[in-house]
Amino acid sequence: MDGKLDYHGHPLVDKMNIRMYNNAYHARGSAAVSKIKRLFMTRREARITVMQLLFEADFHKDESPEQIYGLARMAREFPDDDYVKDMFFGISNHQTVLENIIGRYSQNWSAKRISRVSYAAMCISIYEMVKREDIPVKVSINEAVQISKDFDEEKASPFVNGILNSVKDDLESIRHEF
Fold first, then answer.
1. Which of 49, 58, 120, 156 has its CA 20 to 30 A from that of 110?
2. Which residues contact 132 (CB under 8 A, 6 or more apart)?
């Protein structure tokens, strides 16, 4: 790659940001680019950030999603990303529905027994499938499986894939639960 930024139509990055990134890369090198990259993130980075926020929320049930988001942004200095906010707050507001869906499709496994990483990845995928028509269902499933591969045990990704494909098959009826 020649240093050019290519986000393949990423809706959160406008042409001005891409030009700014490319100009900084060519004018000042990678040090300037790392500062500019903090202004926005790829969709994959955004999904991982949402997964981390959901993971944190699971351990800080006494704090509101707004508090968790604000503290995490200060601590990790990630961009104030619309996708991250939409997903984190949307999933937080639909936890009971998501827990019921995951429990229903994870035969003989309660949602509480599933690892927090895989649970968060499935919540992200299901919420995307239901609420984000701009994201293909296959992409949502593949990204969740990849997050499970990257951050969970080896046996987690086939489990996540199986549940999410079952959800995909019943997507129309699931949409009515939200």
1. 49
2. 140
Domains: count for the chain: 2
**One-letter-per-residue 3-state SS of 17-51:** HHHHHHHHHHHHCHHHHHHHHCCCCCHHHHHHHHH
Same domain, 28 and 104: no
Which residues constitute the domain of residue 57? 43-175
Q: What is the pTM of this model?
A: 0.75
Q: Mean pLDDT per segment of 10 residues, for the chain of length 178 residues?
A: 42 43 50 52 91 92 92 87 94 94 84 86 96 95 95 91 95 90
3-class SS at 122? helix
Q: Which of 69, 48, 58 shows the shortest CA–CA distance to 124? A: 48
Q: Are residues 56 and 133 in the same domain?
A: yes
Our separate counts of H helices and E strands in the chain read: 10, 0
CATH number, domain of 84, equals: 1.10.940.10
Of the candidates 5, 4, 8, 6, the one whose C-alpha atom is nearest the C-alpha of residue 136 is: 8
* CB count in 10 Å sphere of residue 102: 22
